[in-house]
Amino acid sequence: MKQPSILFRSGAVLWAAFAVCAPAALIPSPAVAQAQAGDLDRAVAALRSISTMQASFVQTDRNGQRATGTITLKRPGRIRFQYSPGIPMLIVSDGSALTLIDYQVRQVQRWPIKNSPLGALLDPTRDVKKYGTLIGGDPNQVTVQVRDRSHPEFGVMTFRFNRKAGAPGGLELAGWTALDSQNKQTSVALSNQRYGIAVSDTMFKYNDPRRPARR
Hints:
By secondary structure, the chain is mainly beta. It has a single domain, classed as Lipoprotein localisation LolA/LolB/LppX (outer membrane lipoprotein receptor (LolB), chain A, Clam). Helix content is about 15%, strand content about 40%. It is built from 3 helices and 12 strands, in the order E-H-E-E-E-E-E-E-H-H-E-E-E-E-E. Strands 1, 2, 3, 4, 5, 6, 7, 8, 9, 10, 11 and 12 form a 12-stranded antiparallel β-sheet that branches. The relative contact order is 0.22.
């Protein structure tokens, strides 16, 4: 089943890897390696500490096209992308599957959470620490790439956190970049994050546009 184009736009991504004999300057010192391991632990703890969250989002594809809206998250496994008026789409996860609803063409698509890059955020069975790698060098941010090389169909998820006291785990989820198995990529930036709010389970239901209208 195809991933929704509005969520995962086509893109080309170059992955560079060092072979053996990496220069000594690129090998982190024990102190740096220990600090990085601590940041990975903190990032995992920050994700697991989010019970509920609501935030504004800006979604951008590789061509610079943007969509805005509100995201609501309730762990484990539930999320809602409510797009701004004028975009007749909705993306919802009920805890087991992601559902894309296109109200314009009255189409509904579903696929298991584990088959999506968003599984790293939503799937409670996904071991983020086992498959997570710290990248980047901004001291004010922590960036974690989650990739299960034995399951390329899961895609790649790169989380961005800002260091912020008071956020779950001391790290505020600032957004992510998702890359699916077809190299379709999108980035999501979050703002106005609110944590620990009351969220009803009805938030993760939707009106099925395929049902005939009642007379």
